[in-house]
Design a protein that fits this description.
By secondary structure, the chain is of the alpha+beta class. It contains three helices and six strands. A six-stranded antiparallel beta sheet has the order 1-2-3-4-6-5, covered by helices on one side. The longest helix is centred in the C-terminal third of the chain and has 21 residues. It is globular and about 30 Å long.
């Protein structure tokens, strides 16, 4: 199983998360109307965060500034080896936690 499929298998198990095709290729993970992140093939994950979280992740070397809009709150994470799959899942988990705590989804919106 490739990186994308392993990440999909893990993230799709989280309560309230849906998986759908991403408009620029790959797949995206959503919690209600909010995107948790998306993955391109088996090699690149892009994840949105509030700027303060993004800055912390980039300073710690856990992610890179977003490859398209480097000054935004998004980060990019390259999957280069086996250990990176778990690190990508951890970053998506952090996005899930931030998103869930920012704006809980009422049962009517699910």
């Amino acid at each position: 199983m490739g990186a994308q499929e392993r990440i999909r298998a893990a993230v799709s198990q989280w309560a309230g998360v849906t998986v759908q095709p991403h408009r620029f290729g790959g797949i995206e993970f959503r919690y209600g109307k909010r995107e948790l992140g998306h993955i391109h093939g088996d090699y690149l994950v892009d994840i949105p965060f509030p700027m303060w979280v993004r800055n912390k992740l980039v300073r710690a070397g856990r992610a890179q500034p977003y490859h398209i809009l480097p000054q935004s709150g998004w980060v990019s994470f390259s999957i280069k080896g086996e250990s990176d799959v778990q690190r990508a899942i951890e970053l998506l988990q952090q996005s899930f936690d931030v998103t869930r705590n920012r704006r809980p989804i009422s049962p009517a919106r699910r």
